[in-house]
Design goal:
alpha/beta, Rossmann fold, 2 domains, seven-stranded mixed β-sheet, six-stranded parallel β-sheet, 11 helices, globular, binds zinc ion
């Protein structure tokens, strides 16, 4: 176990990360210090690394520690902490999954039960690097969890490779499909088969979708999407034109279109195509484009005439993370959940970013040793 707290500092798009060392944060009462074991590169970090939208404005000359989709072991428990959020006893060394942000629990949205829309959630992610708790991102050896960050022990049969995506990709997709109420008999289109997309195939089937159609242009991803539950795949290398892909969805759905289309590419370019795949009464779910500063054209009259709606989901509630872990435990032996990530050491973070950016890997995972 690393006795120092290494972290990769991000400065600006196009510049290499730098590894620096920080103190290991002592846990405050009610909090927990984790030893991070794995941290994935999430699409949101790729956007930042590329400088998409207005994200380039968020970087500072001192550098910033990115990373949030991660898992780890309990390093130290703060005063008063004896169990996880299920009441299971917690001890140093236990493997855990955690909410990477902290809803305040007392604002108007939190009290109305939509903690995913809490405006305070991400405050814990900013602060000076030389002030406790130092490393606020998971591209680091240690991370401090505040008292209101949900924390769950990981079941024995769920490996670190499986659970590492639970606290962002998986929980995000669970919250999203809940929001648009994917249910028995729905026909669902998944745009993009990266980490979120392949989980979305499996979760849509779990919720009872009659048909899942997954769209991507990389064979590896399409294959994993099929293994995770997609009934049909559309390869945009074969159907290069938007109209062909829309026609393919219409064909597969008896001319009607899909009840739900989910955007998980992370590009505004695909939104209009997705909207045109919808059946009358359909629901469009936007998750992929999490950054501000881009636009798409929309024909509101078509939405009205066809009784369609657009929903967007960012962050998730604690229950979605809990359900994600239960989903992994239930399907650990049935689905190829270990195949979603590809490993890199922390020192290879630059290569991990560029290989994920080029689409060579589904989801790069930094392994801390
Ligand atoms: Zn993420
Ligand atoms: Zn709140």
């Amino acid at each position: 176990m690393s006795e120092v707290n290494r972290a990769a500092l991000f400065f600006e798009p196009g510049r290499a990360f730098e590894i620096a060392e920080f103190p290991i944060p002592e846990p405050a009462p009610g909090g927990v210090t984790l030893r991070i074991t794995r941290s994935n590169i999430c699409g949101s970090e790729l956007h930042m690394w590329r400088g998409d939208g207005r994200l380039a404005q968020h970087v500072t000359p001192q550098g910033r520690i990115l990373g949030h989709e991660a898992t780890g072991r309990v390093h130290a428990l703060g005063e008063g902490v004896t169990s996880d959020w299920n009441g299971a006893p917690l001890a140093p060394g236990d493997r855990v999954a955690f909410q990477y942000f902290q809803p305040c629990g007392r604002c108007r949205n939190c009290t109305r039960g939509i903690s995913e829309a809490c405006m305070e959630s991400f405050k814990i992610r900013s602060g000076e690097l030389d002030e406790w708790p130092y490393t606020r991102g998971t591209f680091a050896d240690y991370l401090y969890l505040h008292p209101r960050q949900a924390l769950f022990k990981v079941p024995e049969n769920v490996t670190d490779t499986m659970v590492v995506s639970a606290n962002c990709a998986l929980a995000q997709v669970i919250m999203g499909l809940e929001r648009v109420n994917v249910e028995m008999g729905d026909r669902v289109v998944i745009q993009g088969c990266g980490g979120l997309g392949v989980y979305a195939c499996a979760i849509a089937k779990e919720r009872g979708a009659e048909m899942v159609i997954a769209i991507d242009g990389i064979e590896d991803r399409l294959q994993l999407a099929r293994q995770m539950g997609a009934d049909h795949t559309i390869d945009f290398r074969e159907l290069g034109d938007s109209r062909q892909r829309i026609a393919a969805v219409k064909d597969l759905t008896g001319g009607l279109g899909a009840d739900v289309v989910v955007e998980l590419v992370g590009s505004v370019e695909v939104i209009n195509e997705g909207l045109r795949m919808l059946a009358w009464g359909g629901r469009y779910l936007e998750i992929g484009v999490f950054f501000t500063g881009t636009h798409f054209e929309c024909d509101p009259g078509r939405l009205v005439a066809q009784n369609q709606r657009i929903e967007a989901v960012g962050a998730y509630d604690a229950a979605s993370l809990q359900r994600g872990i239960e989903f992994l435990a239930r399907n650990a032996e049935r689905l190829p959940l270990d195949d979603v990530v590809v490993d890199y050491p922390l020192e290879a973070i630059d290569r991990a970013f560029s290989e994920q950016d080029s689409g060579l890997v589904k989801r790069a995972s930094l392994v801390m040793t």
